[in-house]
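Reply to dn_fold:

You asked what the input looked like. This is it:
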Amino acid sequence: MLYKMKNLKCDDKILLSLYYSLFQSHLGYGLVAWGSSTFAKNIFLIQKRAVRALSGLSYNDSTSESFNKFKILSLENLYRLKLASLMWDFDHCLLPSHLQNFFKYSSETHSYGTRSLPKTFIVIHRLVR
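and this is what came back:
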């Protein structure tokens, strides 16, 4: 769809709106749950293909400038944003009670005087590249 609309010489705002409605909305759904899985690399490649369609780039051109131009977060950055938002909600007790019980502060794990006792560590898994 994005390639067809680009061929019709549509405005970038229309193409970006299509990207967010057709692609980004599905990409972000449940991303915290599946974002660190092994198939995330394949989804990132599909995201790059969609950004190439927005920019009119060929299949082997770099997409880094296009991500910046359209202000689109890559899959890895979107995953980090969603995970940080989830942890902020946990820290401020805004999660539903059944989800609030999945997380603990490092100080709740044990009472030994370790280096990490007074700190709260959040492990952010990197996406497979």
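Residues 12-28 form the longest helix (17 residues).
Hope that clears it up.
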